Amino acid sequence: MDNSELDRLREAYKQAVERWIAAIRTEENLATADHHIPAVDVWEEAGFSEEEARAKAKDARRDYEDALRKVNFNF
């Protein structure tokens, strides 16, 4: 595996983390003083989106770490 593949995996991880951060901020911004059910439902849906973004960031991190282990430790 060459450095360009490691760079690609690192960049994919960084982009996934940025999407996760954006999802967290979206969820946070939806926690308003509007205590009505429709507003709470939108906020809850944003929470599901945040969880999905987190999972994708964790997957991207795992892929990058696995590649680093393969390059540096041959496993």
Describe this structure in words.
The chain is mostly helical and 75 residues long. The protein has one domain. Helices cover 85% and strands 0% of the residues. It contains two helices and no strands. It has helices at residues 3-29, 37-73. α1 (3-29) runs antiparallel to α2 (37-73). It starts with a helix and ends with a helix. The relative contact order is 0.19.
Briefly say what this structure is.
The chain is mainly α. It has helices at residues 3-29, 37-73.
Considering the chains and any ligands shown, give keywords for the structure.
single chain; 75 residues; mainly alpha; 0% strand; rod-shaped
Secondary structure blueprint with pairings:
Elements: H1 3-29, H2 37-73
Distance between the termini: 12 Å
Low-confidence stretches: none
Helix content: over 70%
The average pLDDT is: 94
Q: How does the helix and strand content classify structurally?
A: mainly alpha
Q: Largest sheet at a glance?
A: none
Shape: rod-shaped
- The H/E string reads HH
